[in-house]
Amino acid sequence: MAVALWTSCKQNTGTQKSAEQPSKKGDIVNTIINDEDNFYHIDFKNYPSNDKTLPIGVFDSGTGGLTVLKAIVNYDENQNDSHKNGSDGELDFNKESFIYLGDQANMPYGNYSGVGKGDLLNEHIIKDAQFLLGNKYYSNALDPSVNTDKQPVKALVIACNTATAYGKDYIEEFLKKANSDIKVIGVIDAGVRGTLESMSKDEDAIVGVLATAGTVASKGYRNTLLRMKDELGYTGKIEVFSQGGVGIAEAVDEDPDYFDKNLKKPREAYKGPSLDGEVKIDRTLFDIYNFDFDDSKMLCDSEKSDDCSILQINDAKNYVRYHLVTLMEQIRQSKTTNKLKSIILGCTHYPYMTQEISEILEELYSYRGKNGKFLYRDLMVQDVKLIDPAVDTAKELFAHLKGQALFNPNGNIDESEFYISVANRDNAANVIDQSGRFPYDFKYGRKAGEIQEYVKVVPFSRDNISADILSRFQKQIPYVYELMQHFNKTSEKTKDLKEESKI
Fold it and tell me: DSSP string covering 101-140, please?
């Protein structure tokens, strides 16, 4: 089946204009709750939070959270009539609809803490929640007026590890101030629970955490794992080694600061690992990295890779190679006698790379040093388990809907909707590059508290998602891809009716 050309567009029912006006200073939470004239205001006093027919909101910093949605929509661990445990061959959420948001314009979230912009990150996260709770979206990036026919949601799933680590408590505080009982589910507790369930209570193990730099810096997985280990009675020696996977998620989502398939030589605007950067490529480990230089997957300023004075990674798998070798070097240099038995995929983009991660781990298990001895074999099991927190997130969502009697009795999963953020060209304060994105310095140079529409949230389309990424969706998350296609067809019918009404 060929990848479809999407041109999603729903009926424009609103008249509010996007933000050409100066930004307002203030706190985003108080603005949403109290400022009735503001674009972001939500009327929580009349919010239908107990309406079973409402969709479920899911958000991530980009498209990686679709792997969490994949686990949810494919979940079948219970009886649909009674909701008791046990698969019945019918998907557990097939009568639920979902609204997905990928905040691609502001991603990667993992970099905000490193540049001291945790407050700006939390503002983005609150705006993500506001979109899902609210009723506004734009038909496309050039639409000057906002639509107001989007449904609110009955539960929020944070399908982003960094957003969970930094923003879950913040969202819950925001909802408490708004006197809202909307449930917020994050992926970190789910991932830790799945990791521990893969081990025996007295087992010694190293648990690796491969996540964004921001998630690693938060110590969210490490602290949660050590806390839950004690709470659940695990007595073995569990060590946690974390690796910030700079560039992996960005390459998967084709962020040009980390990946550009059209490049043939290094460029200045590169933010990934390098020979002399803060995240350093170690020349002494070249043989172990085993980078693939074909088709400009590594960018070098010399024809011979050994002579590079500038070296840039330009391929998602090569990013994975760099970070897995760095993780194993951490473990080797620690002098531990324990073994790596599992790796938590602490970023929702990483499940797209599970095959590549497994292949590289197998290479490292079999790698021999110059002395002919295995370098890492004593530090890792042959079959390292990759823990995807998504399945346990689905389990927690099911338990919440069951406990609160919120299952939709007559809904249809085909009514799910998919949105993405794009840079708002109507905001004169924005700086936008030739590709239509925020340049790195502007993206991370903004300040929190300037309440304005940096972005427009629009339906997924070929204009904001590349053909390569759509092909990956089609292959790796086929059911979610089908739901996207159905959303597109529904939107096209609405568009045709709108056009006919003008005749």
Answer: EE-GGG--GGGTGGGT-HHHHHHHHHHHHHHHHS--B-SS
Q: What distance in Å separates the CA atoms of residue 296 and residue 259, rounded to the nearest whole number?
A: 10
* Residues 6 or more apart in contact with residue 119 via CB below 8 angstroms: 448, 449
* 285 and 319 within one domain: yes
Write the DSSP symbol of residue 351. Answer: G
Radius of gyration (Cα) for the chain, nearest Å?
Answer: 23
Name the nearest CA neighbour of 94 among 475, 482, 390, 458: 482
Element housing 66 (H / E): helix 66-73
pLDDT digits (tens, 9 = 90+) for 66-103: 999 999 999 999 999 899 999 999 999 999 999 999 99
The identity of residue 283, as a single letter, is R
DSSP 5-64: --B--------PBPS-SPPEES-HHHHHHH-TTSTT---GGG--TT-TTS-EEEEESSST
Secondary structure, 3-state, 273-335: CECCCCCECCHHHHHHHCCCCHHHCEEECCCCHHHCCCEEECCHHHHHHHHHHHHHHHHHHCC
| Same domain assignment for residues 182 and 75 | yes
User: What DSSP string runs through 142-202?
Assistant: T--B-B------SEEEE--HHHHHHHHHHHHHHHHHTT---EEEEHHHHHHHHHHHTS-TT
Q: In this structure, are residues 167 and 158 in contact, taking their beta carbons and an 8 Å threshold?
A: yes
pLDDT digits (tens, 9 = 90+) for 263-307: 999 999 899 999 998 899 999 999 999 999 999 999 999 988 888
Angle at 241 between CA 159 and CA 285, to 5 degrees: 110
Residue 492 has a pLDDT of 59
Whether residues 367 and 431 fall in one domain? no
- Helix pair angle (161-177, 187-197), 10° resolution: 130
Is 313 in the same domain as 201? yes
Which candidate, 128, 151, 138, places its Cα nearest to that of 411?
151
**How many degrees, rounded to 5, is the angle at CA 464 between CA 147 and CA 486?**
65
Q: Which domain holds residue 436?
A: 24-187+390-492
| Residues paired with residue 156 on neighbouring β-strands, in sequence order | 57, 184
- The answer to the question of residue 9 being in a domain is no
* HSE-CB of 375 using CA atoms within 13 angstroms: 19
Whether 130 contacts 40, CB under 8 Å: yes
Q: Which of 379, 61, 50 minimizes the C-alpha distance to 182?
A: 50
**Bond into 108 cis (ω within 30):** yes
Could you tell me the pTM of the whole model?
0.82
Give 181's pLDDT tier (boundaries 50, 70, 90): very high
